[in-house]
Amino acid sequence: MKKFFIFTLVTISSIFCLASNVDASRTYVRGIVTGSNKVVNSQGTQLRSDTNGLISLSSPEAVEVLGEEGSYYRIKFMYTGFIYEGLIPKSKLKVKSYTTDDAYEESLVSMGFPRDYASKLAVLHAIHPNWNFTPSFTGKINGGMNFDTAVDGEARVISTNLIDGSNTTLRSTADGAYKNGVWTTFSGGSWYAASRQTIAFYMDPRNFLDESHIFMFENLGYNPTTQTKEAVDKVIGGTFMSKPFECLPGSVECLLGTHYFSDTFLEVGKIKNVNPIHLAARVVKEQGPNGSVLSLGQGWNNDYKGYYNFFNVNANGKTTEEVLRNGFAKAVREEWNNQYHSILDGSNLIANYYIKDGQSTGYYQKFNVINLKYIYANQYMQNVRAPYGEAYRTYTSYYNSHASMDAWDNEIYDFLIPVYSNMSEYTTLDVSHNGDATLKSLEVTGCELNMDFQSSAYEYVCYANKGVSEIKISATATNALASLNNPGAVKLSENETRAEVIVTAVNGQRSVYIINVKKVDDDMSSPIEILNDIGIKVSDEYASNIEVGSDVSNIINLVKNKHHFANVQINASDGTNVSDGTVKSGMSISITNAGKSSTFKVVLYGDTNGDGLVDIRDLLGVQKHLVKSKTLNNACLKAADINKDNILDIRDLLLIQKQLVGQYNINQG
Questions:
Q1: Which of 3, 357, 527, 568 allows an S-S link to 559, with CB 3.0 to 4.6 Å?
Q2: Are residues 460 and 571 in the same domain?
Q3: Using one digit for the tens of pLDDT, what is the confidence trace for 308-347?
Q4: Are residues 510 and 547 in the same domain?
């Protein structure tokens, strides 16, 4: 049986007349947007996105037409992963009708596609009869690997799936991603760990089996028939690569003279057997339409001028400085001193370490559930939405490179569609299915928590003086839509009392935060006694015997676990309070207990520049001090006295040298 679908190009009255003559459950009306248009509601107000931005759709966005309201079509569409309904002028959609074939859909099922895959692919086949869909069974298991297992595997390392934007409901509150109401930033400061719900949505292939996004599953091998200069030009048009570049004397691997990026991508694609459109789209995604410090050749921090890293190879780190330093270091090592060589050599990573190993789609390069040797690893990008964005840019370039709708409809493309088993009915980013059942804050009055509150820590010990009869619990849920069951005031028994704070997420998932209150005697220890008790030596105003690489949080927890009522605060050398991270020379430790307070400066012997490490920079700092070109002061001066004879001289310098070559181990005691 044939079933009827609508795509675009005839008048709306004829569309709905035709639609009434077929099975209504299978009638589909698709519109292709022309120009750039606001999407409005029935009152004429422009729709807003999940981040409160105004929504506009541009050519050639594909949308579903639900009906008509006066001079408008009511449409349904995906925007940044969310599904919206709104109105767009009838004059701004092109329409064409198609009919699906039940026999073809059944053939997809017999190949191994689940029914909910096959029904969507049958629509695409009706529109594009020359498109080829092949099931790719994830985990190389017949029927595909369990979807929840795959999502858990991707979510276990929080830094591998990042998301930007202001929508906090998409962010993770797992350990390391969120603490005390603050999300940890990654990769230069504007990226956050994605939540499991977010990862599941972008991993679910069913969400992207539409014309605008299916190209994340395109087979990325080289195909000169479809991968033309015109298509590449559409990808890079309006970007920093729309202008030619020059290769000057000394340029590695590049002929002298003027070059065009579209020609470069085509040539590199042929050499590496990689889709040049994918390479171009990847660069635009990595560098942005205006380029970045790593691709404009202007260098950074008065260095690296004339070096390029178009694919951001090795450009990783928590801070912008780390990202740029690592990216440029790679460019220098590989002699990427011109745009052509950076693209040619940089694409080796995609060609040799991804496509040849089976990660031959944009999807598999982000979510490696096919190359079992490196499963959940060997993933090109951290941006969880990268396949979604790159797929749309690729679709746009392909669509715009064709002279007519019919030419586009009859084009040839090959897709490898990931198949999983045991999938839920659907996945969504909507807050109505949000599973965040964590606390943003937890405070207890009347007792001292044994450790700082963390959203991902669910059990605490709280120490109360024996004279305390009641505590008060204050708590706030991370997600404002989650419900909270907080006992508030809790009467204490003679020795030990258990209290629970229960958070229930919108989707029904629950978390229980347990507070075990224990009554203990007063502790009259002095600050010096407290530090000595955890192994830290105190001499005058300095605190030492702390191993290089120690974490601030470890010192705080040691104090709190042994001296429950003591208040401990650690500040960086600039006075900023810190609760975790590497201990460094020049930090201060302040202890208050039983009415006594003292502050001590941290000394890590060998760490003369206060970065928490012992390396060549510390050696150079001592050399400069000895020749009086730079002076070490306070804790850093103390840290340079390696032999602890209260004199900084050549003997201390030699001991640091021996430490660096492995002939000596600096004693921190």
A1: 568
A2: no
A3: 999 999 998 878 899 999 999 999 999 999 999 999 999 9
A4: no
Stronger pLDDT, 424 or 10, i.e. the higher one = 424
Q: Are residues 457 and 535 in the same domain?
A: no
> Cα 128 vs. chain centroid, distance in angstroms?
34
Task: Give the burial string for 526-544 (b: 16+ CB within 10 Å, else e).
Answer: ebbebbeebebbbeeebbb
pLDDT at 662 over 70: yes
Half-sphere exposure of 615 (CA within 13 A, CB side): 6
Does 350 lie in the same domain as 306?
yes
Three-class SS state of 310: coil
pLDDT of residue 450: 84
Based on the domain organization, do 569 and 620 belong to the same domain? yes
Residue 479 shares a structural domain with residue 547: no
Domain closes at, from 82, 101, 120: 101
Helix 115-127 to helix 102-111 angle, to the nearest 10 degrees? 130
Angle at the Cα of 135 from the Cα atoms of 132 and 141, rounded to 5 degrees: 160
pTM over 0.90: no
For position 188, what pLDDT does the model report?
73
Count of domains observed in the chain:
4
Q: Are residues 668 and 536 in the same domain?
A: yes
Q: 121 lies in a domain?
A: no
Residue 106 lies in a domain: no
Q: Are 288 and 234 in contact (CB under 8 A)?
A: no
Q: Is residue 182 part of a domain?
A: no
Using the 3D structure, point to which of 63, 86, 101 is the last residue of a domain.
Answer: 101
Closest C-alpha among 86, 75, 55 to residue 8: 75
Residue-number span of the structural domain to which 463 is assigned: 434-517
Provide the token pair at 272. Answer: 């590496």
Burial environment of residue 75 by CB neighbours within 10 A (0 to 12, 13 to 18, 19 or more) = buried
Give residue 278's pLDDT. 87
Residue with tokens 């400066």: 601
Note the pLDDT of residue 109.
96
Residue 461's beta-bridge partner residues?
516
- Mean pLDDT of the region 430-447: 91
Alpha-carbon gap, residue 32 to 437, rounded angstroms: 40
Condensed to tens digits (0 to 9), the pLDDT of residues 132-168 reads 999 999 999 999 999 999 999 999 999 999 999 889 9
Residue 4 banded pLDDT, cuts 50, 70, 90? very low
Q: What's the rounded Cα separation, in Å, for the pair 209 and 218?
A: 11
Sign of the Cα pseudo-torsion (359, 362, 368, 369, in order): negative
666: amino acid identity, one letter: I
Residues 604 and 630 in one domain: yes
DSSP per-residue codes, 411-454: ---EEEEEE-BS--S-----GGG-----EEEEEEESSEESS---
Instruction: Judge whether 485 lies within some domain.
Output: yes
CATH number at residue 26: 2.30.30.40
